[in-house]
Design goal:
Elements (H helix, E strand, L loop, with lengths): L1 E4 L4 H13 L3 E4 L6 E4 L9 E3 L2 H12 L7 H13 L1 H5 L4 H12 L12 H13 L7 H11 L2 H8 L9 H4 L6
Parallel strand pairs: 1-2
Antiparallel strand pairs: 1-3, 3-4
Amino acid sequence: MLDFYYVATPQGQQLLMFLEETGLPFRRIPHARSLAIVDHWPMDAGEPLPLQESGAMLLYLAEKAGFGMPAGMRARAATRQWLFWQKSFECRSNETGGLYSALDKELGGQAYLCGEQYSVADIACFPWVSARGARLAAYPNLARWFHAVSQRPATQRAYGAPDSVAPPAESEALAGVLP
């Protein structure tokens, strides 16, 4: 069982999306002062394991669940790269267009950020794109990806949960992109 100290931020949404996607058992503790998890059944069967920092938590949970990290070394490296790249959204809030262009370019010709397999990198980046709320018409690959991720049942559960960050209306974000 995981205790998930939820904070209504894009980082909190990353973790909520991951937990919903994998079905790992968790107890959500809303209105926490800081984002954290405590794994009461850690992989080493030792004492409860507390973790902070969303990227570290996502990598730990990906390993625990066996989900979201590709098998090949290069694919894992690319997944980690995009997982850490999403920190750009936090630091470069005034550069949405450049960030969206980078995502759009990467998504050209592939379903997800690291190829055809949905990964922890997609989960890490989606809440930031959602929180920006910008129109995606100028970024067709990003718009397609945003639509696909937003339609996943786990994403819908995560964004439908009380205290979740409300994503922009999909019709607004995808205006002029999808039929």
